[in-house]
């Protein structure tokens, strides 16, 4: 038969869907709801196949749940603020707004081409003033609830570009664009008080049983709850006049207190700062430390360095032991108290430091059973379990017992206390950028910093901005920031910082419930749809985005907007699509159409014939020229081919290798499926023909395969095992194909079973390759759309592996047949027999006296 022209037919089906408005979210009903969401894209230019795998998974879930009878919400939008738009403005002179909305238009078209069942009426971009107006409203609510504040904070400052840089824009201590050595500056910054929810965010993780374990663990570590102890060390030596008498350290290993051999403070600790006033060398050292940057990773990687202040800290339990006090680059001001006692034997950083400055290494914890004489610390600190020794009154105690003892003593003596610290910091949301949500605050010389009035929202971005001068265009706009104070009317200035784009993505999922509301969310709609039942996205967002969204949900709950804590009940993190890369001998990246494969298995450049270096399975990136544009695939093979291919072979959480062979394989399957349906269609009974009384063996056999396929694929889709669902469907298709080899159409029962099989396979592929699904459904004679069909339900009797059929009698008269597993227990056979409709009828009102079961033969119900 004729080939199925996918690209052409797909266009037709998409038009039918559009005309019948089938993707519209249903009105409120009694049906259960299901909210499926994929992390919304950044409109960078074009959709990339890597994205489409993610959206295909979401689409399969959305279509499957819809068939299961759920009201499904499946929206799409754009995470549209951010640096790349400004970079494009600087590089190409396009306005960020124009650049962004043009990209959105292109990418929307590409997503529509993939046939995703998305409710486009709910679309929005975070740079739409309607969206950020509501975000500004939320900001003001946060302010009222004391969830926003302003304080000085360190930022990376690029002295050439005159701009603040994000940590990831600092590369080896230099500005990513200017190449200038980055400085640390203190600037007033806005913060969200996420730490108020630290405990709550931690505890909530336990309820997220449909999240990957590794993501929960990453969040847990990020929040980083530590139960420890604050200990005050008396200072001696030449202390600056304004310095306190004690050095407060935070430790989680107070059991190792007798192993302390030095103390260290952060370069920006107040004590370091005041010492530096008198000491130019220390000033230089501090400046050097600050060049490492503010990111924890950078600090972790840097070589451990210190500067001896000359001060001494007196050991709290050993009066005659005086510890040197260093300023050290590995101590962070932002954690604990910004000061530590160092115990080199049991902490690796301390050990590296001690080796460098020739400090004492004194082990105080020894593994149980080890010999104290021969137990030595080499280049690795001992951080394992054991008991305490070399520690006077602590000797012999376990680590936990020793901690308990020290904490109690410290509290009794008033030289410290038990403390819980979190690694989690408040969230700095200020960005000195143009293309972001303006912070709705006003600086008045008389009234201070006050909120813009709600009725004046949104504080809209000006469009006439210039990117010629370095720095924040909002700041040097001639008029925008000049306003009158809403309180006193005097001349005032708008805040020119905009919000971190992570703010935009922290509540968009809630906005989708009522995207046009003139409040951030409409309560009834949010109550109807939230939480998101299935969220799908990249593991790169496992920490910040998800944590911020969880924070926003809690904050919005406390402000009365929402009635839940956890925004995402189910989370799935998908793997990437990877692709070979090709590099010429001179090191240039080549695109796949510049190379060919020789017969003896080499890869060569088409133009020159010279050999090419192949990089296997690398992440797709424009610079390596190994990206695949979904539009090319859609035009050549059809969207279904791309959809089928991306979910085949690899488990969805793993990476999948993009190969031409794989794409062709998917295309061939779709051809095979449509051929199976088309070739059989004319010989099938009419749709809706009642089932024959009984089935011959080959027909029965086909029916079993059909019902088993339904059962198996359902289970796989429920568990998001798309590749396994596809494998089951392949097997089922082979079964149908071999059944079609026989003379099935002459036998009405077999023909009936064939229709059933073809309907089932069409329904099963529907969520994955929806265009081909509609095509087959129509070829099976239906005028209705497949997308509106309920999901098929397998008959239990046909699922039984080794089934037999036995007669059921009532008072000795044959009344029914029972199909049941050959090795069913007597009780099971009895129960199944009594459930039969015809047995009920035969019994009427008479009570059952006895049931006689002859296994594998007969059941007699005696009334
Ligand atoms: C003494 C000690 C001995 C420590 C030992 C560890 C091992 P967690 O558990 O992650 O909370 N620390 C405290 N404040 C710090 C800061 N601002 N910058 C860098 N390090 C800091 O980490 C707590 C431990 O990290 C503390 O316990 C402290 O070192 C260090 F064998 O105190 B410990
Ligand atoms: Zn004022």
Automatic annotation (TrEMBL):
Highest taxon listed in the record's lineage: Bacteria
GO BP, sorted A to Z: leucyl-tRNA aminoacylation
CDD domains for the chain: Anticodon_Ia_Leu_BEm, LeuRS_core
Residues in Leucyl-tRNA synthetase editing domain copies: 220-409
Protein species of origin: Dichotomicrobium thermohalophilum
Binding site for ATP: 622
Gene name per UniProt: leuS
Transmembrane segments: none
E.C. code: 6.1.1.4
Family assignment from sequence similarity: Belongs to the class-I aminoacyl-tRNA synthetase family.
Keywords: Aminoacyl-tRNA synthetase, ATP-binding, Cytoplasm, Ligase, Nucleotide-binding, Protein biosynthesis
GO annotation, cellular component aspect: cytosol
Coiled coil: none
One example GO MF annotation: leucine-tRNA ligase activity
Entry protein name: Leucine--tRNA ligase
Domain Aminoacyl-tRNA synthetase class Ia: start-end pairs: 424-581, 615-658
Positions occupied by motif 'HIGH' region: 41-51
Residue intervals of the Methionyl/Leucyl tRNA synthetase domain: 36-170
């Amino acid at each position: 038969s004729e080939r199925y022209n996918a690209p052409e037919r797909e266009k037709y089906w998409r038009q039918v869907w559009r005309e019948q408005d089938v993707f519209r979210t249903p009105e409120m009903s009694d049906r259960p709801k299901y909210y499926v969401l994929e992390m919304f894209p950044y409109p960078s230019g074009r959709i990339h196949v890597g994205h489409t795998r993610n959206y295909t998974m979401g689409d399969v879930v959305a279509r499957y749940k819809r068939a299961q009878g759920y009201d499904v919400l499946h929206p799409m939008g754009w995470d549209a603020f951010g640096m790349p738009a400004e970079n494009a403005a600087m590089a190409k002179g396009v306005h960020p707004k124009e650049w962004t909305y043009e990209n959105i238009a292109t990418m929307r078209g590409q997503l529509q081409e993939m046939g995703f069942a998305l409710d486009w009426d709910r679309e929005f971009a975070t740079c739409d003033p309607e969206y950020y107006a509501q975000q500004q409203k939320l900001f003001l609510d946060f302010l009222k609830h004391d969830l926003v504040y302003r304080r000085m904070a360190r930022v990376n400052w690029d002295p050439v570009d005159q701009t603040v840089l994000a940590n990831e824009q600092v590369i080896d201590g230099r500005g990513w664009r200017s190449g200038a050595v980055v400085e640390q500056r203190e600037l007033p910054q806005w913060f969200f008080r996420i730490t108020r929810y630290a405990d709550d965010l931690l505890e909530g993780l336990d309820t997220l049983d449909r999240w990957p374990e590794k993501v929960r663990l990453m969040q847990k570590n990020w929040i980083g709850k530590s139960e420890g102890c604050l200990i005050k060390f008396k200072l001696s030596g030449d202390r600056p006049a304004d310095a306190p008498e004690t050095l407060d350290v935070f430790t989680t290993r107070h059991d190792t207190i007798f192993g302390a051999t030095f103390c260290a403070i952060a370069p920006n600790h107040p004590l370091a700062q005041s010492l530096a006033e008198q000491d130019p060398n220390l000033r230089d050292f501090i400046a050097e430390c600050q060049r490492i940057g503010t990111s924890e990773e950078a600090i972790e990687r840097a070589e451990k360095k210190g500067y001896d202040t000359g001060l001494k800290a007196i050991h709290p339990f050993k009066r005659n032991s005086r510890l040197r006090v260093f300023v050290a680059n590995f101590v962070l001001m932002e954690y604990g108290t910004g000061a530590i006692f160092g115990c080199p034997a049991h902490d690796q950083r301390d050990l590296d430091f001690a080796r460098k400055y020739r400090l004492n290494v004194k082990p105080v914890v020894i593994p149980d059973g080890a010999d104290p004489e021969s137990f030595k610390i080499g280049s690795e600190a001992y951080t394992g379990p054991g008991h305490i020794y070399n520690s006077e009154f602590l000797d012999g105690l376990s680590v936990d017992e020793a901690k308990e003892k020290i904490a109690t003593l410290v509290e009794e003596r008033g030289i410290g206390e038990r403390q819980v610290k979190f690694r989690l910091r408040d969230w700095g949301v200020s960005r000195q950028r143009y293309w972001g949500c303006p912070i709705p605050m006003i600086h008045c010389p008389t009234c201070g910093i006050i909120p813009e009035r709600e009725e004046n929202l949104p504080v809209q971005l000006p469009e006439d901005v210039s990117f010629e001068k370095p720095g924040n265009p909002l700041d040097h706009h001639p008029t925008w920031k000049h306003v009158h104070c809403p309180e006193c009317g005097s001349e005032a200035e708008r805040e020119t910082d905009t919000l971190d784009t992570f703010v935009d993505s922290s509540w968009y999922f809630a906005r989708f419930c009522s995207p046009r509301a003139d409040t951030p969310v409409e309560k009834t709609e949010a109550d109807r749809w939230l939480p998101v039942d299935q969220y799908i996205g990249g593991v790169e967002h496992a920490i910040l985005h998800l944590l911020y969204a969880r924070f926003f949900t809690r904050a919005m709950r406390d402000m009365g907007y929402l009635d839940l804590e956890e925004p995402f009940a189910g989370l799935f993190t998908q793997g990437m699509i990877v692709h070979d890369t090709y590099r010429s001998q001179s090191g240039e990246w080549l695109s796949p159409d510049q190379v060919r494969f020789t017969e003896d298995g080499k890869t060569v450049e088409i133009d020159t014939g010279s050999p090419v270096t192949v990089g296997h399975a690398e992440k797709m990136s424009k610079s390596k020229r190994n990206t695949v544009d979904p539009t090319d695939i859609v035009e050549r093979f059809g969207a279904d081919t791309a959809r089928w291919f991306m979910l085949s072979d690899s488990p969805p959480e793993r990476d999948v290798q993009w190969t031409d062979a794989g794409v062709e394989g998917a295309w061939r399957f779709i051809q095979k499926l449509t051929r199976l349906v088309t070739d059989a269609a004319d010989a099938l009974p009419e749709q809706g023909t009642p089932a024959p009384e009984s089935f011959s063996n080959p027909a029965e056999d086909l029916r079993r395969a059909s019902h088993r396929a339904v059962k198996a694929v359902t289970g796989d889709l429920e568990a998001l095992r798309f590749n396994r669902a596809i494998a089951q469907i392949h097997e089922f298709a082979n079964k149908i194909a071999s059944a079609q080899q026989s003379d099935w159409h002459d036998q009405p029962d077999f023909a009936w079973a064939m229709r059933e099989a073809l309907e089932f396979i069409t329904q099963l592929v529907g969520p994955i390759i929806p265009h081909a699904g509609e095509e087959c459904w129509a070829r099976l004679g239906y005028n209705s759309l497949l997308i509106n069909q309920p999901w098929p339900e397998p008959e239990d009797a046909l699922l039984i592996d080794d089934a037999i059929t036995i007669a059921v009698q009532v008072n000795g008269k044959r009344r029914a047949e029972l199909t049941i597993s050959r090795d069913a227990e007597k009780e099971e056979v009895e129960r199944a027999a009594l459930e039969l409709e015809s047995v009920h009828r035969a019994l009427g009102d008479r009570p059952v006296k006895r049931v006689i079961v002859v296994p594998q033969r007969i059941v007699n119900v005696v009334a």
